[in-house]
Amino acid sequence: MISRSKKLPPGSVIGIIGGGQLGRMLSQAAKNLEYKTVILDPIPLCPAGQVSDHQIVANYNSISAAKSLSNMCDVVTYEFENVDLECLMKISEDIDVFPSPEILRISSNRILEKQKLRNIGAPTVEFLPINSIEDFNQAKRIIGFPMIIKTASSGYDGKGQKLLKSEHDIDDYLINSINTKKSFIAEDFSDFNCEISVICARNIEGDIITFFPSENIHENHILNISIVPPRVSNKVITSARNLAINVAEALDLVGLLAVEMFLTKNNELLINELAPRPHNSGHYTMNGCETSQFTQLIKILTKQPLGNTNLSCSSVMINLLGDLWINNSSKPDFDKLNKSKNIFVHLYGKDEPRIGRKMGHINITSENISDAFIKAMEIKSKLSN
Ligand code: ADP
Ligand code: MG
Question: Tens of pLDDT along 272-290?
Fold first, then answer.
């Protein structure tokens, strides 16, 4: 069989749209494999810009910046979902864009995403698109309370979401937003046992592999802790991995796909959302696997065989939010932690801490998960004093 892929030689240039922490860690992984990176981000010296070979400082919807990016690069990817689709499609006329603009189109809109999942037979919570007050009234009848309303696009870390426990939670702001033709999705509120996610990696040859599922604990809708292996049965782990593979294949993925799921009280897996990029819940792979999610994506972008995703140890990942900097009298001190065995501090080079802003994360590894978890809780409580 003729191979569709020819490895991009070291020195080739990878374009990354978005210069946050995911772009930063992706750039660092590219460097380790001797590739160059160019970041497109409107903020000079953004986290990824600090560690890349070049940054195009421009808005994401600038067609001329998109053109410059495709001229400078051999392949382009993106690190967040609110990328300008038109620009991405322009770039893909000239060079490879992985994952495809079509995957971004679907996953950046919660309605299209859930409809796609339904069409391929993947389980989700009950949902209805809301484009008018009539739709909303219908959702109240069919889905009922409690219900979650989410903006169809542009939301992240729980932004643009509202839990409606009863009629009393419906305020003028929501009604006005629906009336002004903003598009929403109404979802049945899942009283789940726990949340897990699976990151799936697929290359241009169609080889496919999953990372070990992670159990994710959120606080105020922001990921707080990831626990790997998750505290669920082997059967659930296998089903979660298979589900992620089915979705990735149905989307003809080339790249990474993070699949967030709820495990219901009936032990049923429901897909919550998809992200065609590295994912916060996969940060454990930096110290817990032979191949990190970032290295894996670089391998895919440069058309190399997939790396081994086996777990080397158990891991707990804790996110470091700006709250730690703001709520404490002194700056958190990571020097001592950095010197400890099996504790890995990753900071994102963000100057300005804000409440809820992701500033870094810590991976704690161990032979067994309960030991890693206890250590993680100790670190968390020490840091917040
Ligand atoms: P994002 O991560 O883009 O902000 P999500 O849809 O993943 O949006 O929602 C964030 C979190 O809110 C989820 O991880 C979950 O904890 C909770 N959540 C979202 N949708 C539901 C739902 N239908 N039922 C119960 N909890 C939900
Ligand atoms: Mg989510």
Answer: 999 999 999 999 999 999 9
